[in-house]
Design a protein that fits this description.
Length: 61
């Protein structure tokens, strides 16, 4: 399955609570943190929702 590298780059100040919880569910705890996830339908949905707060890169394997 494809993998993606997600970097949290924008602050959560004045953001919707649902988006805050989504970033927490993706495993982020502080700004500029990097996480690697497999691209499942659930992760894709989360990234579609909070993509404006993150930088998303595909990882070639």
């Amino acid at each position: 399955m494809a993998k993606v590298k997600v970097t949290w780059v924008r602050s959560l100040i004045n953001r919707v609570e649902k988006h805050r919880r989504t970033l927490r569910a993706l495993g982020f705890t502080h700004l500029n943190q990097v996480k690697i996830h497999e691209m499942t339908p659930q992760i894709k949905g989360m990234l579609d929702q909070v993509g404006y707060l993150c930088k998303i890169e595909k990882i070639d394997e």
